[in-house]
Design goal:
About 30% of the residues lie in helices and about 25% in strands. The chain is α+β, with helices and mostly antiparallel strands. Among the domains are: about 115-125 and about 250-330, Elongation Factor Tu (Ef-tu), domain 3; about 130-250, RNA polymerase II/Efflux pump adaptor protein, barrel-sandwich hybrid domain (OB fold (Dihydrolipoamide Acetyltransferase, E2P)), CATH 2.40.50.100; about 460-600, Four Helix Bundle (Hemerythrin (Met), subunit A) (Up-down Bundle), CATH 1.20.120. The longest helix is centred in the first third of the chain and has 48 residues, at about 5-50.
């Protein structure tokens, strides 16, 4: 009897079941142990890898943790940092995410011919070659002044005054008698006429005396030139002596524009350079002329050199003593290394730039102290410290500097990296602190701390301090405009600050203060230009951050009177000065109360 199909299937199933049972009883444990061992080895390798991995914050690369978590500064999730980075006091690795978030941009160091636009203050002056003194050539008495006020216009040949003079009466008699005998003695006749000409009487006046045939008691003094009366030195019935200056007349159809150039700018300026100038209140706008003369000596009080420009003024719209601002665009003959102005972080005599290491596997930035040359338009000349082709950070440099400072590395405000002198900032709203030092606005008011901003510098004057207060007021107005995100208001305030800086000038102090202020002046001017040239409020805030660093130094160095607060927001890593203790963050309107008082400054 042959087995059925169902019997065959049942038998095969029993065989398979037996084989499976045998594998479980005998082979299974060994394989299971191998699987567990493999899994354990893999976990050990991953643990070893994680042990070497560093976790950082994309917003704050100075944070370094052994494992994942949240940033203690801003609360963002930490991300893995490169395990290949090598830490030192002058460089820092940043992740791609951090670079993108900080909007860091670089540009190459280029070799080019430096050009510079030099702004020169000045004023309109009378051309000294067109000033005429009207004098009396004989003694006498002024009977009547025909021009009786300063500023009166006068034309050549018009009467200015009538005078009586015994000497003039005698001369008239001599002229009349010489005319009667001119046929017999022509030389005498010509001599008497010449005498009247030397007294600046016209031929018409001389002929009128001869035609009348009698002596006149009074004679008119005529103007020998066209112009305006700049000064009047006589009144009716006044006695005058020979040689007395009775009027000063100036022709104003041609004038001088006298500009003041600081001695350190003289290497850029030469005779023949084109000058564009604008006079305040002049309705015709900007005019163009050329440098015609450069003073051979320096003014010892202002430390400036006079630059003279001749201008035509036939329409009489330009007035003497009008204030003007001139601009000269000059070019140096030799090629120099150039970097964008915004790449230089400058506070006092120290100039820093951040250079991107293009040869590193991961983005690395190095802080570099450089020697600056003159400013060339939107660039600075680098005299020492960089090479052509290196990539320098021109956007986001201040944010990188803040991270260097937080990491206690070499930076603008940290002259001794690794010393631990950099204060640690916490944000009360972020960490939920219950510390009583936290105020109602959720910002921490720190205890007394030491913050190095530079000691007072000898040589500052009270006049300088008082003038600087006006600039500081404009800065504070600009800060309030940034708090309100008012682009136009900020631009106006910082334009006023730039005007105040120009009126303060470079040469206001002596000794160490003078040398320090020369550096700070250029830094403030550069940061104000950055703000005024910004196309949006974010650009204004970037320039404002750099400006704030310098102004904090100035307030300390020269003991600017008043009470101000040095404030800081860890969420945006920026600082500023305020006249109020209450925090009003100028960098981010969504975090208006984010910040803390770093220092109360009182002088």
């Amino acid at each position: 009897m042959q087995p059925t199909r169902n019997q065959i299937l049942i038998g095969a199933g029993l065989v398979l079941a037996g084989l499976l049972l045998g594998w479980i009883l005998f082979a299974g444990p060994a394989d299971h142990e191998q699987d567990e061992a493999h899994t354990h080895d893999q976990e050990m390798v991953e643990a070893d890898e994680n042990a070497d991995e560093v976790w950082t914050c994309s917003m704050h690369p100075s944070v370094r943790e052994d494992g994942p978590g949240q940033c203690p500064i801003c609360g963002m999730d930490l991300i893995p940092a490169s395990s290949e980075e090598r830490e030192d006091d002058y460089s820092m690795v940043m992740t791609e995410a951090a670079i993108k978030l900080a909007q860091i941009q670089t540009a190459p160091v280029v070799l080019g011919s430096p050009t510079r636009e030099i702004r020169l203050p000045g004023r309109i002056k009378v051309d000294e070659r067109r000033i005429t003194d009207i004098t009396t050539h004989f003694s006498g008495r002024v009977l009547e002044t025909k021009v009786d006020f300063t500023g009166a216009p006068i034309r050549r040949g018009e009467p200015m005054a009538t005078v009586y003079s015994p000497e003039l009466v005698t001369a008239q008699r001599e002229l009349i008698e010489a005319d009667r005998q001119k046929e017999r003695n022509p030389r005498l006749y010509e001599a008497t006429r010449r005498k009247f000409r030397l007294w600046e009487f016209t031929d018409d006046q001389i002929d009128a005396i001869i035609e009348r045939g009698e002596v006149q008691r009074e004679m008119e003094i005529m103007s020998p030139v066209d112009g305006f009366v700049m000064s009047r030195n006589i009144v009716d019935q006044q006695h005058v002596m020979e040689g007395t200056v009775i009027y000063e007349v100036a022709n104003l159809e041609n004038l001088w524009v006298v500009l003041e150039a600081y001695e350190e700018d003289m290497g850029w300026i030469s005779v023949g350079d084109e000058v564009r100038f604008t006079a305040r209140g002049y309705p015709a706008g900007t005019r163009t002329a050329t440098v015609s003369y450069i003073d051979p000596v320096v003014n010892p009080s202002s430390r400036t050199v006079g630059i003279r420009v001749d201008v035509e003024n036939s329409d009489s719209r330009l007035k003497p003593d009008m204030l003007v601002t001139g601009t000269i665009r000059a070019e140096l003959p030799d090629e120099k290394l150039l970097v964008p102005v915004s790449s230089v972080l400058w506070t006092g005599p120290r100039s820093l730039v951040y250079v991107m290491d293009t040869g590193a596997d991961t983005p690395r930035f190095e802080v570099r102290e450089v020697e600056l040359g003159p400013r060339s338009g939107d660039h600075y000349v680098i005299e020492e410290g960089m090479e052509e082709g290196e990539q320098v950070v021109f956007h986001g440099a201040f944010r990188i500097d803040s991270e260097f400072q937080l990491a206690d590395r070499f930076s603008m405000m940290n002259r001794e990296p690794g010393s631990g002198a950099v204060p640690v900032h916490d944000h009360g709203a972020m960490n939920g602190s219950d510390d009583p030092a936290t105020d109602h606005d959720d910002h921490i008011v720190p205890d007394e701390e030491t913050h190095e901003h530079g000691d007072a510098v000898d040589g500052a004057t009270d006049d300088f301090r008082n003038d600087f207060l006006a600039l500081l007021d404009n800065y504070l107005e600009g800060k309030e405009a940034l708090v309100a995100s008012d682009f136009d208001g900020a631009r106006e305030a910082f334009q006023h600050a730039a005007d105040e800086l120009e009126s303060i000038g470079l040469h206001r102090m002596q000794g160490d203060a003078h040398m320090r202020w020369m550096d700070q002046y250029e830094a403030i001017a550069g940061h104000l230009d950055h703000i005024l040239e910004a196309g949006d409020i974010d650009g204004q805030r970037e320039g404002f951050a750099q400006l704030s660093h310098v102004l904090i130094e100035v307030v300390h160095n020269y003991e600017i009177p008043g009470v101000r607060y040095h404030q800081y927001c860890p969420m945006v890593d920026e600082i500023w000065l305020s006249s109020e203790e209450e925090i009003a963050n100028p960098y981010d309107p969504s975090m208006l109360r984010c910040g803390e008082v770093i220092e109360r400054i009182e002088h």
